[in-house]
Design goal:
The protein has a five-stranded parallel beta sheet. It has 153 residues and is an alpha/beta fold. Helices cover 42% and strands 11% of the residues.
């Protein structure tokens, strides 16, 4: 499949604009922060160190980057697939054996740009019956700053 890809500068601008909005979270109503905090208390999370260790030991299972496609293309964790948070409930199924042998216990490790979307996505999967979904509570910028690998497309 031949895909038309925007120039790198356009990707970086899009990512910068998007991330600027997320880093300005103080401008959101407290209800947003409250929702994320309540949701985080209901799911399993790991930090960046535990994520790196799980990757190194090949124990992270299905690694899902829940950011938008342009963010994913600008740099993602090796081995991660891209399923944006907005469609995860509909798009996860082929990756867990549906319809022949659906594995709701499959280890699914989710990450995003700052940890918020992965938390919300993990809760959505939990609500669908998944029992081993884990959100990585980290900033992708910290991952890169630590010298961990990212793959750009």
């Amino acid at each position: 499949m031949n895909r038309c890809r925007p120039p790198l500068a356009a990707l970086l601008l899009a990512i910068g604009v998007f991330n600027a909005g997320w880093s300005a979270a103080q401008g959101y109503p407290s209800s947003v922060k409250d929702l994320v905090a309540r949701t985080k208390a209901q799911i399993r999370t790991i930090d960046m160190g535990a994520f790196k260790s799980a990757l190194d030991k090949r124990e992270a299972g299905l690694i899902v980057d829940v950011r938008e496609p342009l963010e994913y293309a600008s740099g993602h964790v090796p081995g991660a697939i891209n399923i944006p948070r907005g469609v995860i409930e509909l798009s996860i199924w082929p990756h867990v054996g549906f319809p022949d042998s659906t594995d709701l216990g499959k280890r699914i490790t989710l990450y995003c740009g700052v940890g918020t979307r992965s938390i919300l996505a993990a809760k959505s999967l939990q609500d669908l019956g998944f029992t081993n979904a884990v959100a990585v509570d980290m900033r992708i910028a910290d991952w890169a700053k630590a010298g961990h690998p990212l793959v750009a497309e």
